[in-house]
Design a protein that fits this description.
Layout lengths: L24 H16 L4 H16 L3 H5 L10 H21 L4 H9 L3 H8 L6 H16 L4
Helix pairs in contact: 1-2, 4-7, 5-7
């Protein structure tokens, strides 16, 4: 039997598995700096603002969400929470129209039902109580009427 083909024995030296090293932080920072420069060269002002915020964070540090302009003011909900709330309200309003629900009570029955629409609404996180549904529908109607934004 050749030494390369023999079975391992208890006395053989174990070799550690190769370990991947973490990426070099300096190389990552250089990549981010290059990305910031590319973003600052784009014609879109919103994209340029993101590039400027990223470059400032790389140079001075600080609060990245604030520098990027995605942190809400004190006391406001986070942007992602507002987007989720808006999506739920839109899904609910669409479901109310599609199902012909004329009241929050009827819509609550639809949400609680074992239909495809009811399961879809529950999966989207839509409220089940008529009182909450009434509030969400009222907020959605008010948002649709608001033409200032």
């Amino acid at each position: 039997m050749t030494p390369e083909r023999r079975p391992a024995l208890w006395c053989d030296v174990l070799q550690p598995a190769p370990v991947e090293l973490a990426p070099d932080p300096l190389a990552s920072a250089e990549g981010l700096q290059a990305a910031a420069e590319i973003l600052r060269a784009v014609d879109n002002p919103a994209v340029r603002a993101v590039g400027a915020g990223l470059a400032e964070w790389l140079q001075r540090g600080g609060d990245l969400p604030r520098l990027l302009g995605v942190r809400g003011r004190r006391g406001q909900r986070a942007i992602h929470a507002r987007q989720q709330q808006q999506q739920r309200a839109e899904a609910l309003a669409a479901a109310a129209v599609a199902a012909g629900a004329t009241s929050a009570q009827a819509l609550a029955r639809i949400v609680a039902s074992d239909t495809d629409l009811g399961r879809e609404l529950r999966a989207a996180g839509v409220a089940r109580s008529p009182r909450q549904l009434r509030r969400v529908l009222a907020a959605g109607v008010a948002r649709r009427r608001d033409t200032s934004s």
